[in-house]
Design brief:
By secondary structure, the protein is of the alpha/beta class. It contains six helices and ten strands; from the N terminus they run βαββαβααββαβαβββ.
Length: 202
């Protein structure tokens, strides 16, 4: 199913459709402020396992991230952070960044890496963040299976390719080709482990 949602004004009826799919264990493809993402409800373990099979990866090695609405989710899913890290996140978010943080006990076990960390995203995209607000907790964030290709910026092309793989594709307009910048905040100093769209002068 392909659903057109306008970022400036997501309609309640359309959002309810998305939330119903997530709560019933469905997988969605949705826009972010970078590339289109593949996701599900973080508390639907079978959906997470499906995504890992699609990407041919083990959950513990998948480096899956959360999409959050704001930094209010930090205290729930990440261990207490040093003030400089919190200030850095507050400065850069919402934006095209993924922060690697020490995971709290609230993070579902299937989503924790062997290092007990979690990736956290607060994208500058109203559709993605409205989904999280309406759902009441974060959704999973990972890239689409395969290489990032130029034709996968178009939601109609994405739908044609993945309509038999996922329950819902959100058409939020043409997406990007560059993924988020990943900043690892688990060491003594924040460190960029993938340079993406976000610029940070550390």
């Amino acid at each position: 199913m392909l659903v057109r949602i306008y970022e400036e004004d997501p309609q309640p009826r359309q959002m309810k459709m998305v939330i119903d799919v997530l709560r019933s264990g469905g997988i969605i493809i949705y826009p972010t402020d970078t590339i289109y993402g593949l996701g599900c409800d973080i508390y639907q373990q079978k959906s997470i396992e499906r995504i890992c099979r699609l990407k041919q990866i083990q959950p513990s090695k998948a480096k899956l991230s959360f999409i959050c609405d704001d930094l209010g989710h930090l205290s729930q899913y990440a261990k207490q952070l040093p003030n400089p890290i919190y200030r850095l996140m507050k400065e850069l978010l919402p934006g095209p960044y993924t922060f690697i943080l020490p995971a709290s006990k609230q993070v579902p076990k299937i989503l924790k890496t062997k290092k007990d960390t979690i990736g956290l995203r607060v994208p500058d995209n109203n559709i993605a963040r409205t989904i999280v607000r309406e759902l009441g907790h974060p959704i999973l964030s990972t890239t689409l299976p395969g290489e990032i290709a130029e034709d996968l910026v178009d939601p109609e092309v994405i739908h044609d390719k993945f309509e038999n793989t996922v329950e819902l594709v959100i058409d939020g307009g043409i997406g990007g080709l560059i993924p988020s910048t990943i900043i690892d905040c688990t060491g003594p100093e924040p460190e960029i482990v993938r340079q993406g769209l976000g610029v940070w002068n550390n």
